[in-house]
Amino acid sequence: MARPFHLSLPEYSIVVDYVSEGEVANLIRGYVELKGTKVRFSGVAYGRFGGQNFSPQFSKAAKEKIAGLTGDFARFEEDVQLRLVRGEFEAKPREGERHHHHHMGEGPGGTKG
Question: From the centroid of its chain, how far is CA 58?
C-alpha cells in the first residue's frame, strides 16, 4: 500500500525565550524561524509523570503564515511538537527575562494564597 505523498518541510529553527515553571506543567513561549520569518508560539509542556509532551499554540494569523511558507501547517505543527519534546531547540531568554517558578497553592513571589 502506497503512503500518501508529503512535501518535505523547509529548514527552520526553534527558539524558546520564556519558561514559567509549575508543579505539573511549564508555560513556554518562543518562536520558529523559517525562510527568514519569525513566527511566535506559546504552549504548555507536561513531563513530570508518564513522559514528555508539549502542546504548541499558534495564533490564526501565525497558522496562515506558516501554511503559506510550508504548504502544510498540520505537518509543521507536529514536527515542532516532536522537536520540542526531543529538546531540539535553542533556549534564549529575552533580554531582562529571568527564571519564573511557583508551586501549587502559592501566589506570585512564593506567597501562600
Answer: 9
Per DSSP, the residues of 55-86 read EEE--HHHHHHHHHHHS-HHHHHHHHHHHHHT
pTM of the model: 0.74
Q: If we measure between CA atoms, which residue out of 23, 8, 5 comes closest to residue 110?
A: 23
CA distance 63 to 79: 14
What is the Cα–Cα distance from 34 to 87, expressed in whole angstroms? Answer: 18
Which residues fall within 8 angstroms of residue 100, CB to CB, at 6 or more apart?
18, 19, 20, 21
pLDDT tens track for 1-40: 444 445 589 999 999 999 887 877 889 999 999 999 999 9
User: CA separation (Å) from 32 to 19, 24, 96, 107, 110?
Assistant: 16, 25, 21, 31, 32
* Rounded Cα distance, 95 and 40, in Å: 16
Three cell numbers, residue 58? 499558534
CA torsion angle 68 61 9 57 (round to 10): -160
